[in-house]
Amino acid sequence: AQKVTQAQTEISVVEKEDVTLDCVYETRDTTYYLFWYKQPPSGELVFLIRRNSFDEQNEISGRYSWNFQKSTSSFNFTITASQVVDSAVYFCALRGMNRDDKIIFGKGTRLHILP
Amino acid sequence: DGGITQSPKYLFRKEGQNVTLSCEQNLNHDAMYWYRQDPGQGLRLIYYSQIVNDFQKGDIAEGYSVSREKKESFPLTVTSAQKNPTAFYLCASRGPTGLLNTEAFFGQGTRLTVV
After folding, report:
1. Which residues fall within 8 angstroms of residue A72, CB to CB, at 6 or more apart?
2. Contacts of B102 in chain A (CB under 8 A)
3. What is the pLDDT along chain A (115 residues), one digit of tens a residue?
4. Which residues, including other chains, have CB under 8 Å from residue A24's CB and lie 6 or more apart?
5. Residue among B47, B42, B34 at smallest CA distance from B89
6. Cis before residue B8, ω within 30 degrees of 0?
7. Are A5 and A92 within 8 A, CB to CB?
8. Does B105 reach chain A within 8 Å, measured CB to CB?
9. Which residue, of A3, A92, B13, B60, has the fewest CB within 10 Å?
10. Nearest by Cα to A109 from A93, A89, A80
11. Do the Cβ atoms of B32 and B74 come closer than 8 Å?
12. Which of A6, A39, A101, A107 to mutate to test the interface with B (most CBs of B within 10 A)?
């Protein structure tokens, strides 16, 4: 069975603070993909990043960075110097490489950036 | 422009009526997905299709039906058997199998309200 856990339901930080969103996953697949999506108030999910299970290199994109640790089954997302526009719901997702092709999402973390 | 189009954006129906939500994509994607989003529940998979004329149940398929007669289209019917149909419905698609096509892209969603 596959499962994605985002334990933080809601987080509030003051603008310019750094914030980390946690994601823990479970899968029996040896090869899998992890994703982060952003859902602004408009509702549409915006793809942020993909990480393959065989590539544990961390990634940085501007103020965003992702820490993938296979040993702890975690794929955490950090926003540095947060801005009000970062306020959204963020989802972590998992897709295994077995035949059924499901993409499983966590319950999301609602992030409030306070001015 | 290429993308995923869901229509309508808002839909109101009387209890006991079937209703069909439209999802069309012009990205030439093979896989398509339907998710339901409720407050605090994240995204839950209803149905998905990896290829034309084939689809599989997700985690909450009861009370829903789909068809995949064309590659571009994956309509979702919410039947009267669905006990709590009021929700935000998101459609997604994913490109052909390959390392660069593992993430799904989403439409803008349809908010269904049953009164």
Report:
1. A24
2. 33, 50, 52, 95
3. 789 999 999 999 999 999 999 999 999 888 899 999 999 998 999 999 988 888 888 888 899 999 999 999 999 999 999 999 999 999 999 998 766 678 999 999 999 999 9
4. A4, A5, A6, A7, A72, A73, A74
5. B34
6. yes
7. no
8. yes
9. A3
10. A89
11. yes
12. A101
Contact A56, A78 (CB under 8 A): no
CA torsion A103-A113-B39-B105 (nearest 10°) is -30
Tokens of A84: 């009000």
A61 in Cβ contact with A49 (< 8 Å):
yes
Write phi, then psi, for A90 (nearest 5 degrees): -115, 130
Contact A68, A34 (CB under 8 A): yes
pLDDT per residue over B63-91, tens digit each? 999 999 999 999 999 998 888 999 999 99
In whole angstroms, give the CA distance from residue A83 to residue A21: 15
Write the burial class of residue B40 (CB in 10 Å: 0-12 exposed, 13-18 middle, 19+ buried).
exposed
